[in-house]
Amino acid sequence: MQLDPDNHKNTNRQETEKRTSPLQYGNQEKKNVYIETYGCQMNFADSEIFGSILLKEGYTMVNEVGLSDYVLINTCAIRDNAEQRIRKRLRELRAVQRQRPWMRVGILGCMAERLKTQLLEEEENVSFVVGPDAYRKLPNIMSRVRGGDKVAATELSNDETYDDIEPVRLNGNGISAYISIMRGCQNYCAYCVVPYTRGLERSRNPQTIVDEARYLFNEGYKEITLLGQNVNSYRWEQNGTKVGFPELMAMVAEISPSMRVRFATSHPKDLSDDLLHTMARYDNICKSIHLPVQSGSERMLKLMNRKYTPQWYLNRIEAIRTILPTCSISTDVIAGFCTETEEDHQATLEMFRTVRYDSAFMFKFSMRPNTFAARHMEDDIPEEVKIRRLEEIIALQNQLSLENNQKCIGQTFEVLVEGASHRSKEQLFGRTSQNKVIVFDRGNHQPGEYLMLKVTECTSATLKGVVVD
Ligand code: SAH
Ligand code: SF4
Ligand code: F3S
């Protein structure tokens, strides 16, 4: 469900024909912007928000660094390696800047928020840093840095939701889109930097969410993913009317039965039966839940400040299995958090064997400065132990993914076709409601179609199928 938060994808789409010739360009104000996005889905949604802000101000999106006057890097700070990647990217950009000395580089997103002006001091080729709640200031900042100024805008807000901004769909497939429904997080899990980089939790006006979803549907989109760090705590109250996450899901699902609705991420402590029943009522709400467990050990969960026990978590899994028998379940897990013993690690493996996840994002613990863990705990698990534990979890999950996929062989699923398979242009791929990818021969089919596919073979990552009439 969730993108690998360390993944990077260029989110630009250039209308090449709109670019002016070099001569004209020489006479124009330089306003070509190249956006690069790293991190989670929320960052991808944010790039579409500030992309939209910039387009309104007359900026143009280009799809090559070599054509740009501004490079905006939307960054992630979740683990140290996410930040190291950005530092490496900045070194690479220096060579381009030598060719285009007027080009300005800005760091946006979570790493900007975490490091603030320190980034301007440490990385001399960066001209501006802008945190996730300050994107409205971008046009102003970008005109200020032209003359060589350095600018930082990193104040967080208690109410910014960008709900009046219609995001520009960057690099989209025209079929599925993200809608940010809330921002921030105040769960303060001991290991996590997000509450510090994204600020306090705030929900967005439901009417603007429904309007955006309806607009996308009218534009031909077939799938919407509602995004927040903890969507279950979505809450809106105005003039005595209360809207919680189940109500919001229902409002979006009712736009059309032919538009799928997904959501990410759910915090186990807040996953209510009410939401599960709402999911059961609507065929177009996808039967797939991402429920990050982080650890299977009660002691670790407590130290992590996750606010649930393994028993509570398993009770929620039971509720999903009972109310939504066809639902897939995926998770996030951290290996080697402070003081983790072999016994704790075994409890995590046991959790995986019990739940039998369909897929998982698996990480080794990375101590983040200023988090509760950094202030009060010691990063005491040796690197080789973290790596070994992580590898054990990955090996187990690969086996579980394979076994779960094997169970699909012979079954028929409705898929929404998303595009050409990465391996071959002769093949397309689509997703089931359970968020599983099925690859099949193209025939006369097109992205955006709903098709019934029968699964014929599988690996631990992908299913292969044939179209059934
Ligand atoms: N809001 C989501 C998680 C967002 S971050 C939730 O609470 O479930 C995505 C994942 O990154 C987390 O679920 C966690 O597994 C991982 N993560 C967060 N901080 C980390 C750290 N310091 N080291 C390693 N992994 C971390
Ligand atoms: Fe981080 Fe916890 Fe918030 Fe998720 S719920 S973003 S892990 S603090
Ligand atoms: Fe990374 Fe920020 Fe998302 S730290 S995971 S980009 S909220």
Protein traits:
single chain, 22 strands, five-stranded mixed β-barrel, binds FE3-S4 cluster, binds iron/sulfur cluster, globular, binds S-adenosyl-L-homocysteine, 15 helices, 35% helix, 469 residues, alpha/beta
Structural commentary:
The chain has 469 residues and is α/β, with parallel strands linked by helices. It is 35% helix and 23% strand. Strand 6 (126-130), helix 6 (138-144) and strand 7 (151-153) form a beta-alpha-beta unit. Helix 13 packs parallel to helix 15 (383-408). The longest helix has 26 residues, at 383-408. Bound molecules: S-adenosyl-L-homocysteine, iron/sulfur cluster and FE3-S4 cluster. S-adenosyl-L-homocysteine binds next to strand 16.
DSSP strand content: 15-25%
Number of strands: 22
Roughly what percent helix?
A: 25-40%
Ligand names? S-adenosyl-L-homocysteine, iron/sulfur cluster, FE3-S4 cluster
Strand count, sense and closure of the main sheet? Answer: 7 strands, mixed
Shape verdict = globular
Furnish the topology, listing elements before pairings.
Layout: E1 8-10, H1 22-27, E2 32-38, H2 41-56, E3 60-61, E4 70-75, H3 80-99, E5 104-109, H4 110-115, H5 117-122, E6 126-130, H6 138-144, E7 151-153, E8 176-180, E9 182-183, H7 194-198, E10 202-203, H8 206-218, E11 223-227, E12 235-238, E13 241-244, H9 245-253, E14 260-264, H10 273-281, E15 288-290, H11 298-303, H12 310-323, E16 328-335, H13 342-355, E17 359-364, H14 372-376, H15 383-408, E18 412-420, E19 427-432, E20 437-441, E21 450-458, E22 463-467
Bound molecules: S-adenosyl-L-homocysteine, iron/sulfur cluster and FE3-S4 cluster (F3S).
